[in-house]
Every structure is written in C-alpha cells, then in structure tokens.
Design goal:
homodimer; 156 residues; mainly alpha; Arc Repressor Mutant, subunit A; two-stranded antiparallel ribbon; 7 helices; DNA-binding
Chain lengths: 156, 156
DNA sequence: GGCAAGTCCGACCAATTCAGTCTTATTATA
DNA sequence: TATAATAAGACTGAATTGGTCGGACTTGCC
C-alpha cells in the first residue's frame, strides 16, 4: 500500500526512546520492547539493524544496551526508516538504475520520481529531536475531528 | 516498506493514458494494458475500481471503454492512489480512530501524523495534467523547498 | 585471574498476511 | 450476436511478522 513497515515503526519508537534517555544508562532491547509492549525479538532485530547502519551504537556486556550514535537533532526520520527498510522508493520503477521492463513505455516514471524526492525531503526534515518535543496540544483531539483520509486538503 | 502498490502504479499509468487520449475514442482496458505490456486482468480491475470511485467513466458495448471523468487538471495523484488503495496512511496507528493497542505508550504517533499530512499534501498537488507535461517542466520542484502543511519547522 | 550473568549478534526457520493473478459468469451496448 | 464492461471468487507466491538457537562479548563478583 503506502505504509511504513512495523519494523520501521518500531525503529522510530526505539530511537526516540533512546533520545529521551540519552543522559542515562544504555537501554537494552528488552527494556525498550517491554516499555512499549512490543515483541522483544523483533525489537532486538530492529536495533541490531540500526546498530549495523550506524544510527545507534551497541554496548556489550551485562550493563550493555544501545545508545544514539549522534545528536538527536542530527538524525532524521528518513535515516531511521532507510536504515531499516532500505532506500525509500515509492515505486519499483523509480530505482537508482530504473529498470522495470517497460521503462520506455512507462510514462509515469519521471513524475513519480519527483514525488519521491519530495517525500524524501519531508522525511529528512523531521528529526528525532523534533519528534521528542513535548506535544503541547493533545493529539487525540485533532484526530477525532473531521476525517482527513479521502480528502485532499484544499491545496492551492 | 513504503511503496505504491502495483495497482496504484497501473492506475496512474492508465489515467495518464486516458488524459493523453481525451479527444479520441474511449480506451478499453485491453488496449491500455497491451500498450504498456501490463497484465490485462489487473489493469481491468484497476480501471473498474477507478470507475467505481468516479475517477473515470466506463462505457459498455462494443465501442466501449474508459474515459476520464474530469479535466486532467482536476485529478490529483492522490485521487488515483486513494481510489485504488484506500486512504493513504503511513502507519496503522495513524488512522482516523487511532487504535493501535499501545496508543498511550506509542510516542511517535503524533509526529508521524504530521508527516502523513505532508505527504498527502505532496500527492494532492500533483495533477494528471502535470504528469502529462514535458518532463523538463519543473512543476514539482517547488515542493522540495521549505515544508508547508503541518510541518513543525517553527519549532519553539 | 576465573567464573557466571547479562547482553548483543547472526543465521535459520515457521506462520500469517497480502498483493497479484486467473477464472468464471453476468450485464449492457452497438 | 459479438464485444466489452462488471462482479465475485479461488489460487499462488512473496513479503512481513515473529520466534529459536548457538555464539561472542563485556561486566561484576568470587
């Protein structure tokens, strides 16, 4: 469809958790998973991936765990998502070496590439630090308002 | 991951094709599918869906086929995508009645909701008419600039 | 120094879900 | 009557989700 994978979702949760516990001890996968009621094994896998990609650093040993590798202001949502799910591409056509078999005939590739770039721009603008800010307005109120799903927000 | 479904992809291709053949006869699913080397049955299903959602109009009979329901400038990419795949929601949490079981504990819901809105904004800005234009025309470049729509750039 | 506990790491595996495809039958129009 | 849209269902395969196990590493305690 057009959704983040659960792994990417968990990755964002984990990274945000680490951002909020920077000063303290390193957080273990177990600790984070239990805090949010998430599958421990999957969260562990996500954190391993994030460590391999350099988003977080792992510390072995009995007091080990994970910590953010950089400042929360330096890590974007795109960093986390693409670390887990690989490069963000809205279509299979729009790869770096675009090679769907109907390349010449496919006429929507170029416009979609631009859309893809815009989305990358959006995702890279949002940092973990921003996501950790205290939302002074209750989220539920906004959500219970008029449905936004099918609507195209009065552009122009 | 974060990809359009093949159906949505085909939908965009079909709608663009219809936009470029407005003046002429109605195009059958068979004709469009063969032109782009696409599975005929899937393309038919996509067009059926688009017809049901009012994006295109179907004409029965031997000279039948599909035609755009509106002006190409009035149809956005979001219209096509959400007609086929349903509402665009980047996470399962961010629904209209947000009900993932860890709602209170889940801390990334609100930031992601804003990201979702930004993406909706991007998709709704792109019209079929723009997609049919010359690729050199930088119709979308403006979007890569400063974020609009729900962004929290003005952080504190 | 040596041992045990707690943690990360990597690979392999199982169940579920979902997208994509095909099939069949029906309806409407020229 | 022939053509093309419409509709509903079954099937297939891949991706996602989630788990298990054995290994390696670091720390704390004896």
């Amino acid at each position: 469809m057009f959704k983040l994978s659960k792994k990417a979702d968990y990755g964002l949760i984990a990274v945000k958790h680490l951002a909020m516990h920077r000063q303290e001890h390193a957080c273990s996968a177990n600790e984070i998973a239990e805090e949010y009621g998430i599958s421990v094994t999957l969260m562990a896998k996500v954190l391993q991936r994030l460590a391999r990609e350099g988003v977080v650093v792992a510390k072995h040993g009995s007091t080990g765990g994970y910590q953010l590798a950089k400042d929360p202001g330096q890590v974007s949502a795109l960093d986390v998502i693409s670390a887990i799910d690989g490069p963000v591409l809205i279509t299979s056509c729009v790869t770096s070496h675009g090679n769907c078999e109907t390349t010449e005939r496919c006429s929507v590739r170029e416009p979609l590439r631009k859309v893809n770039e815009s989305i990358l721009g959006v995702l890279s603008t949002v940092t973990i630090a921003q996501m950790s800010e205290d939302p002074n307005e209750p989220a539920l109120v906004a959500l219970s308002g008029p449905m936004r799903s099918g609507s195209h927000m009065s552009s122009s």
